[in-house]
Amino acid sequence: MTTSAFSANPSGSRAHPNDDEEDQWEDLNYCLSVLDELEATCSGDDDAITRGMLTHIINEYPRSGNHLQPSENQHLLLSELVDTGRIYNPCSLTNSEWLEIVGDGSMLFDMVTQEARDDIAKRASAVVNTLINTNESHVTLMDGHGRVVYQILADLKERECNVDEFTFWIYDLDYDVNAWHEIFLPSSVESFHDDIFCSGENTLRAPEELPGVVYLNFCGIGGCVEQTIDMVSCLVRQHMRPVMVSYSTRGMSQDRVTGLRDFHNKTCKMTQRAKNKMCAQFISEHGRGSAHFVTYGFYYESFNPYNDPSQEDYEDYGDYNPDEESCDCEDDCYSDCECGCHEELCEMVCEY
C-alpha cells in the first residue's frame, strides 16, 4: 500500500489526521465499511464490487458548488481504495474492460437529468460520426467525471467498432478534475493539467498538440471566446479539421453585443452559409434560460463530417478536395442574412 493521500507517518502506516483532515478520514472509514458490505453481498464478483464502490464515491461525495466536476474527496478516496487492492484500478484498464466496470453508465449520469444525458448522447454520436468519416482514432477534449468519454466509447461499441483502438487526450486546469481523470479513466486516456488553448503565455497551441477530433466541451465559455475563435479558425480554416464546441448561453446579454453573443449569432448564421470557407452544424441543445446549453460542430466548407455515415443519404467525402471548390464570402457577407435555423433556439437567445 502506498503512503496515504490523507495522512501518513514516514513509515507509510496511517496516522491520525489533524483537524482539517478529520472529515476525510471519516469518509475513508465509511467507504471501507461500504466495501466490506459489497464484498459480502457480491460473492466474489470483482466487477460488481468495483462498480458499487465507484458509484458510492461519485454520488456520495459531490463537489460543493458544481456537482458536475470531480471533488477532491472523490479522487482521494478512489486512490485510497485502489491502493487496498480490493477494487480494480480503473486507469489500468483497457477501454473494453473499463466499459464492463462502468456498466450502463448510471454511476456517471445519476446526477444529471435525462434531458442532459440525451444531449450528451447526441454530442458523443457526433464525435463518433466524425471519427468514422475522417478515419480518426483519437479525440482531444475537456470532460468532467468522464461522461463524454464513456458515451463516446459506448457509442463506438454499439456500432461494433473495436473500442480498444481509440485514444484520448484530456486537458483541464483544475487540479482535482485532472487528478480524477488520472485515477478513474482508462489507460487509453492521457491527462494534461494544462490549458487546452495555450502552450505558453499568449501562445495558441500548435495543431500537433491537439491531435484527432477536437472537442471544446465548456461548462461556461467565460472569458475564452477569443481563444475559442482563434483555435477554431486555425484548425478548421487553415488545417481543414473539424472542431466541436459546447457552451452555456448563460449571461449572454440581450441588450448589448458581447463577445459571447457575437460568437453565438455568427455561429447560428454559419449553419446556413459558409463564412470564409467555414461552416457550422447544429448538434444539440438542452435546458432553458440560465441552464441553456448548446453544441455546434465547425467544419471546412462542403465536407460535413458530423453526418451519420449509416444513413442512406450520406455522401462519402473520402476523396474530397477542398481546393476544387471555393467560397468568396467575406467578413461582411452576412449583412443581409436572416436567421432561419433552429427557430426555437434563436427566438430565445438571439436578436438579428
Core attributes:
2 domains, two-stranded antiparallel sheet, disordered N terminus, 352 residues, Rossmann fold, alpha/beta
Structure summary:
It is built from eleven helices and nine strands. With 352 residues, it is of the alpha/beta class. Helix 1 packs across helix 3, helix 3 packs parallel to helix 8 and helix 6 packs across helix 7.
**Continuous helix count:** 11
Indicate the CATH architecture of the largest domain: 3-Layer(aba) Sandwich
How confident is the prediction overall: mean pLDDT?
81
The parts where pLDDT drops under 50 for at least 5 residues are 1-19, 312-352
Taking the alpha carbons of the first and last residues, their distance comes to 62 Å
Q: In percent, how much strand structure appears in the residues?
A: 5-15%
Question: What overall geometry do the principal axes of the alpha carbons give?
Answer: globular
Q: What is the oligomer described by this structure? A: single chain
Q: Quote the CATH topology of the largest domain.
A: Rossmann fold
Order of helices and strands: HHHHHHEHEHEEEEHEHEEH
Main sheet: strand order: 3-2-1-6-7-9-8
* Main pleated-sheet profile: 7 strands, mixed
From the alpha carbons, calculate the radius of gyration and give it in angstroms.
22 Å
Helix content: 25-40%
CATH hierarchy, class of the largest domain: Alpha Beta
CATH superfamily of the largest domain: Vaccinia Virus protein VP39
Structural class: alpha/beta
Number of domains: 2
Count of individual beta strands: 9
